[in-house]
Backbone:
């Protein structure tokens, strides 16, 4: 396993993940999610803890890059899209259903379903980018 490849792919994936999160959740779905989730769980934008959001995206992308490089030998956009979508769908289902069962973060199943779909789309795109980067960097 190449630490260099995982690091570069992880950082690249993290940048894409952060920007996609802003686009999808911060712009496209902001009003929809406000209608279908409990606002008590959200910080106002002025109070968001940016370093934690950046670190979250970084660690998630590094995890995907590690899995892709170490165990799955994913080095193409197509295989990265597929693996990213499947991993993020399963993780999204596990976490979102747990949150739905144990909290009031989702006010209905519609919010839960759209959150899972959005996370799966993000995972597919980020996975594709990570797969591409892993395929381009030589050991």
Residues:
């Amino acid at each position: 396993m190449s630490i260099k490849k995982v690091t570069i792919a992880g950082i690249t994936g993290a940048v894409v993940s952060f920007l996609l999160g802003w686009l999808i959740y911060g712009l496209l779905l902001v009003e929809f999610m406000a209608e279908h989730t409990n606002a008590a769980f959200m910080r106002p934008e002025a109070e968001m803890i940016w370093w934690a959001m950046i670190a979250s995206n970084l660690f998630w992308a590094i995890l995907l890059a590690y899995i892709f490089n170490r165990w799955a030998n994913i080095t193409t956009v197509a295989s990265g899209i597929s693996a990213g979508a499947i991993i993020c769908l399963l993780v999204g289902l596990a976490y979102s259903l747990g949150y739905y069962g144990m909290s009031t973060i989702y006010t209905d199943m519609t919010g839960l379903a759209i959150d899972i779909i959005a996370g799966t789309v993000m995972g597919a795109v980020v996975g594709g980018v990570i797969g591409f980067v892993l395929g381009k960097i030589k050991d």
